[in-house]
């Protein structure tokens, strides 16, 4: 989601966020927390030295999130509303 490299998946996003040039409010919110701000700054100054490794770990962790099924969960007709 960065205009400079919209056709590639890379670490340039962090450089834009560090300069407060992210596209979304959630991008700016990354700089409100000291831990995430430090991470953004690290990735921006080291040209994403650990970005792809960190991304891989995040995807594995997200894969461990259980999917709600049956009476426990629901598929929403509209994401913003409970059916």
- Overall shape: it is elongated
Q: Based on helices, strands and strand pairing, what is the structural class?
A: mainly alpha
* First-residue to last-residue Cα separation: 30 Å
The helix fraction, in percent, is 40-55%
How many distinct helices?
Answer: 4
Mean pLDDT: 87
Unreliable parts: none
Provide the succession of SSEs. Answer: HHHH
Q: Gyration radius, to the nearest Å?
A: 16 Å
Q: What does this protein look like?
A:
With 83 residues, the chain is an all-alpha fold. The protein has one domain (3-63). Helices cover 45% and strands 0% of the residues. The chain is built from 4 helices and no strands. It is elongated and about 45 Å long. It starts with 11 loop residues before the first helix and ends in a 20-residue tail after the last helix. The mean pLDDT is 87. One of its GO terms (molecular function) is heme binding.
Topology:
Elements: H1 12-18, H2 25-29, H3 34-45, H4 51-63
Helix pairs in contact: 1-3
Summarize the structure.
It contains 4 helices and no strands. With 83 residues, the chain is mainly α.
Give a quick set of tags describing it.
mainly alpha; metal ion binding; 45% helix; single chain; metal-binding; lactoperoxidase activity; Haem_peroxidase
């Amino acid at each position: 989601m960065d205009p400079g490299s919209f056709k590639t998946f890379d670490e340039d996003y962090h450089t834009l966020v560090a300069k407060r040039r992210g596209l979304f409010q959630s991008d700016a919110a990354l700089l409100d927390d000291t831990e995430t701000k430090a991470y953004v700054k690290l990735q921006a100054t080291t040209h994403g030295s650990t970005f792809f490794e960190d991304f891989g770990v995040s995807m594995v962790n997200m894969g461990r999130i259980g999917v709600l099924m049956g009476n426990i969960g629901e598929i929403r007709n509209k994401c913003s509303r409970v059916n």
